[in-house]
DNA sequence: CGAAACAATCAACCGTGCATGCTTTTTTCC
DNA sequence: GGAAAAAAGCATGCACGGTTGATTGTTTCG
């Protein structure tokens, strides 16, 4: 469902940029160019931030001319609007990839899920998202797009966390605790921005997963 | 100690901007102008972000000319370097102010401390800091300054949280849990950037303060 | 051949640091 | 103590570099 929505938005953006009625690039090389530009846009965001990700910088990164970029995305705004949609796809792929190797159950599972969630939030994709997130506060056209992305990723992250943790949200407090876990992961992503925070982070992940496990699976009162 | 350090840095910045050997502005009106500029810089950061906080925008906000700003801060970099130091002072004043009305002890206390920490991280000062934090990743001159500020505020926040919570850090896991609480508060600050997140937040604060209380004050095994 | 895709160039605008000018306050000199 | 000079503080304007969207030119594909 989310993947389908993303593709529809992507096609709409393609229509806008070419002014045509067809469904995106016609040539394979054009599709490849477009992909390269979008990937470069996200990479530049992560490395250079919003202000540093000028169209020229993105083009240099993608190895294409400004004219080529302009063919696909008439304005900087359109470029990053498409990049937002691209980011949603990349995010989902990233989480799916990481979820593959989770242990079966118990405290090891809880630890691994927390570790994974934190890893997602300390990676380059979150970094790019963070830059967009912060920049969107003063970019009216971008704001709505980014707010929608944030909302969607947030809901999806929550859904996946509940699923991976096998958490029962009908138990009072579980829902909020899972949410707190994600907010903490975001905070850790922030803390990793200017310097490597991994040592401190490891201790926090270990402890949080213990606390989380205790909340999700309280000791049996009958035992 | 931190206040003294802040003042020394402030004086050093003043020396730099005037090229003199004296200790900052000589006239009261000059001190007032400087203060206005710095306050405006922080307010603009919170509202417009880094890219939007041009010297012209800050001056308009402060109600001074660009020449006046330039007298105090020769470059944009110097302006925001001083703003960083100013931010540290404002942050401390803010926390002190909020700490005044904390209840005495128990779960109410824990809740109030968590609520306060989260409130600090969802206010305009944190918002300004966040913009600086993110922008600093691609501003070499600013990076070091902001990293130092982040480090200092982080340590101070931790120290105060431990103090206000009357937490015993020799108990295994308490230190990490307090740190995680702060990281969670930062994540909640982030979540409040593009839209009002207060409803979700209230639930998380309530629930987490319960969990935190249970961690800090586990049930007496002898009872 | 025309459309699509890409490349290169242009003009307008903005932000910055620098320079010059004006006003207010402090210091120096008699 | 008062006038003049100097310093401090503030105001205005300029030149430059970078970014952007628009425009024109070239290459590739169907």
Radius of gyration of chain A: 20 Å
CATH class of the domain at 76-216 in chain A: Mainly Alpha
Q: Please give the oligomerization state of what you see.
A: homodimer
What is the N-to-C order of secondary-structure elements of chain A (H for helix, E for strand)?
HHHHHHHHHH
Termini gap of chain A? 44 Å
- Broad structural category of chain A: mainly alpha
Largest protein interface, residues of each chain: A-B, 46 and 46 residues
Provide the CATH topology of the domain at 76-216 in chain A: Tetracycline Repressor, domain 2
Helix segment count of chain A?
10
**Total E-strand runs of chain A:** 0
Please give the CATH architecture of the domain at 76-216 in chain A. Answer: Orthogonal Bundle
Percent helix of chain A = over 70%
Q: What does the largest sheet of chain A look like?
A: none
Strand content of chain A: under 5%
Q: Enumerate the spans of chain A where pLDDT stays under 50 for 5 or more consecutive residues.
A: 1-23
The best one-word shape of chain A is: elongated
Average pLDDT reading of chain A: 86
Keywords (chains A, B): DNA-binding
DNA-binding region (chains A, B): 54-73
Domain HTH tetR-type (chains A, B): 31-91
InterPro entries (chains A, B): Homeodomain-like_sf (IPR009057), HTH-type_TetR-like_transc_reg (IPR050109), HTH_TetR (IPR001647)
What would you say this structure looks like, in words?
2 copies of one chain form a homodimer. Chain A has 223 residues and is mainly alpha-helical. Chain A has a domain at 76-216: Orthogonal Bundle (Tetracycline Repressor, domain 2), CATH 1.10.357. In chain A, 78% of the residues lie in helices and 0% in strands. The first copy, chain A, is built from 10 helices and no strands. Chain A has helices at residues 2-18, 28-52, 55-62, 66-72, 76-99, 106-121, 124-136, 140-165, 174-191, 198-216. In chain A, helix 2 packs across helix 3 (55-62), helix 2 crosses helix 5 and helix 6 (106-121) packs across helix 9. The longest helix of chain A has 26 residues, at 140-165. The first copy, chain A, is elongated. The N and C termini of chain A lie far apart (44 Å). Residues 1-23 of chain A have low confidence and may be disordered. The first copy, chain A, binds a DNA duplex (30 and 30 nucleotides) through helix 2 and helix 4. Chains A, B: Residues 54-73 bind DNA. Chains A, B: Keywords: DNA-binding. Chains A, B: Residues 31-91 form the HTH tetR-type domain. Chains A, B: InterPro entries: Homeodomain-like_sf, HTH-type_TetR-like_transc_reg, HTH_TetR. Chains A, B: Residues 1-32 are annotated as: Disordered.
